[in-house]
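Fill in residues.
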């Protein structure tokens, strides 16, 4: 782009490449709206989805980005064409391997930490898309009785055409920052089938109010981030003044540093949510109320209050990067559980490890996701104690609820420092400054959980889901 973006970059305090990306990213909203007006049926809409994604990627990251995207998409499609029986596994390892190579080559974590940007963030989302597509195509070979409900819902009986596949991978700029969604949903959307099929009553969901809400949320998130980031820089962790503070001051700063960084992600995901909603793809059905109201959960990638006020660590993945958490649950966690057996800490740790590798090969990522596995396991110990308390002892139950909330608040915000600073040296400095509390607390709870094993009463279905 030949525009002089220097003044705008200086005004908001970011680099010119980031400004270029943000302009193209915001442009996904009108681009997604135009999708609704594209003639030519599903074929025309697929062509538009693919081409608009290519153009936005080119202006955001340059020609090399589209070449990287092409490699990933080719890996998935070729494996589906030539070896359907194992295309899911082949695509998983080849696509993840290629993504890791790009992470190493571009040193993406350092670039993002220093305010730069490259195409690896988009490659991360695209990797999940091509893997899920291949796995769902492989699932189409299995007997229905061997499939879980989510597999039955998402499996592909036929191979998508190249136009459908490329449209799915690049539509609405969703490859920039998500959300991740299933190709089955995309195909039904373009063909106006399933929940998108016109009803006999002529009822059609309007995306405008939900899209406006997402835009307003994005504006608030960006304003909050720009206000907070100069006050809580990550460089403070290695400055002498930080070490001069007392324990509670350092704890407060770690909380505020994590709190500040989260607003950046809230902004990005709010823009993504708006673009998916305005296209119509974000529609997820109708409520059972009278009159029925439209739901737009397919585009939702974050529940801000759900993250900041989570009652337990188990609730955090359900509110943060929601669609990626859902992907990890369906394509990693559940598939590691042997039939007839219950999932355990191994499945949780393996899932968090895959998530760490997906983010990049930085020590900070691995430490954070191991920490979160411990954090969730420790939270489950508190929850088991809470469930063992008789209903008549409401005060004791509430004490455990508050304990789980406080535990999550402390461990999550002290753990996430490693995700932000990335390097082992800076992570150890920050963790040591608060006496490794984010590790000590969950490990202590896990040990106590092995010693104190209260009798758990019969649980309801809602409780089992937690």
């Amino acid at each position: 782009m030949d525009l002089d973006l220097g003044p705008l970059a200086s005004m908001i305090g970011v680099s010119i490449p980031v400004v270029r990306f943000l302009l193209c990213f915001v442009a996904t909203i009108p681009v997604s709206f135009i999708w609704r007006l594209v003639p030519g049926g599903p074929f025309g809409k697929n062509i538009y989805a693919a081409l608009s994604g290519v153009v936005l990627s080119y202006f955001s990251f340059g020609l090399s980005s589209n070449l990287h995207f092409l490699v990933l998409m080719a890996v998935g499609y070729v494996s589906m064409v030539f070896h359907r029986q194992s295309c899911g596994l082949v695509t998983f390892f080849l696509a993840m391997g290629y993504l890791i190579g790009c992470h190493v080559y571009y040193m993406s974590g350092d670039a993002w930490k220093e305010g730069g940007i490259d195409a690896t963030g988009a490659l991360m989302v695209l990797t999940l898309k091509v893997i899920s597509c291949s796995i769902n195509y492989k699932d189409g070979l299995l007997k229905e009785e061997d499939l879980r409900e989510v597999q039955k819902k998402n499996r592909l009986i036929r191979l998508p055409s190249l136009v459908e596949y490329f449209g799915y991978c690049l539509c609405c700029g969703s490859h920039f920052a998500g959300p991740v969604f299933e190709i089955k949903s995309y195909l039904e959307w373009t063909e106006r089938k399933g929940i998108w099929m016109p009803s006999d009553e002529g009822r059609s969901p309007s995306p405008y109010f939900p899209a406006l809400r997402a835009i307003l949320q994005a504006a608030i998130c960006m304003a909050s981030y720009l206000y907070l980031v100069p006050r809580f820089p990550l460089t403070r962790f290695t400055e002498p003044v930080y070490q001069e503070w007392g324990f509670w001051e350092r704890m407060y700063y770690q909380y505020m540093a994590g709190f500040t960084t989260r607003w950046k992600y809230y902004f990005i995901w709010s823009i993504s949510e708006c673009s998916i909603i305005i296209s119509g793809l974000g529609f997820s059905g109708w409520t059972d109320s009278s009159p029925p109201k439209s739901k737009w959960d397919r585009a939702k990638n974050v529940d801000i209050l759900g993250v900041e006020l989570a009652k337990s660590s188990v609730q955090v993945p359900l509110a943060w990067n929601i669609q990626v958490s859902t992907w990890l649950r369906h394509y990693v966690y559940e598939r590691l559980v042997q039939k007839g057996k219950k999932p355990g800490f191994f499945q949780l740790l393996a899932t968090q490890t895959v998530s760490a590798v997906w983010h990049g090969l930085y020590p900070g990522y691995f430490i954070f996701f191991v920490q979160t596995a411990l954090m969730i396991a420790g939270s489950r110990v508190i929850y088991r104690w809470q469930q063992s308390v008789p209903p008549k002892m409401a005060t004791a139950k509430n004490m455990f609820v508050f304990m789980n909330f406080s535990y999550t608040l402390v461990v999550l915000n002290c753990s996430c420092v490693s995700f932000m600073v990335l390097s082992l040296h800076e992570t150890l400095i920050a963790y040591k400054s608060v006496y490794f509390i984010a590790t000590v607390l969950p490990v202590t709870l896990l040990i106590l959980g092995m010693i104190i094993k209260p009798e758990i009463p019969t649980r309801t279905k809602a409780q089992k889901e937690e």
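The radius of gyration is 23 Å.
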